[in-house]
């Protein structure tokens, strides 16, 4: 019988102790592909502060869409990393050495670089 209490997250496991929800749960692994940032400014897009407030009131979108957009940006601005449906894209730029694992129990995403799970500095 496998002792599941010591299933530390690791690149070679499809089931491990999720650092986000602390459950031993199945993990889905993803490769990453890169596509250039399409923002006219040429830098990653972030909507926050007064701009996010304006977006939350933009009559161009139905209320539920505004809510979704505000929730999305609040998560991104809060430092969360997650999978999200976006416009379909095609890229032949494979990000070698970077993988993403997603917990089936809590849907939290973990980023792996060089075979190691990326953790935030606890300062
Ligand atoms: Zn989890």
Can you lay out the helices and strands and say which pair or pack?
Layout: E1 15-17, E2 24-34, H1 49-57, H2 63-77, E3 93-103, E4 109-113, E5 116-117
Antiparallel strand pairs: 1-2, 2-3, 3-4, 4-5
Bound molecules: zinc ion (ZN).
Name the bound molecules: zinc ion
| Low-confidence parts | none
Strand share of the residues?
A: 25-35%
Instruction: Specify Rg, calculated over alpha carbons.
Output: 18 Å
Structural class: alpha+beta
Q: How many helices does DSSP assign?
A: 2
Spatial gap, N to C terminus: 39 Å
Helix content: 10-25%
Q: Oligomeric status of the shown chains?
A: single chain
Counting structural domains, the number is 2
State the strand order across the main sheet.
1-2-3-4-5
Give the number of DSSP strands.
Answer: 5
How would you sum up the major sheet?
5 strands, antiparallel
**Approximate shape:** globular
Instruction: Please write the string of helix (H) and strand (E) elements.
Output: EEHHEEE
How would you state the average pLDDT, rounded? 93
Walkthrough of the structure:
The chain has 123 residues and is an alpha+beta fold. It has 2 domains: 1-35 and 93-123; 39-88, no CATH class. 20% of the residues lie in helices and 26% in strands. Helix 1 (49-57) packs antiparallel against helix 2. The longest helix is centred in the middle third of the chain and has 15 residues, at 63-77. The chain is globular, with a radius of gyration of 18 Å. Residues 18, 20-21, 23, 25, 103, 105-106, 108 line the site of zinc ion.
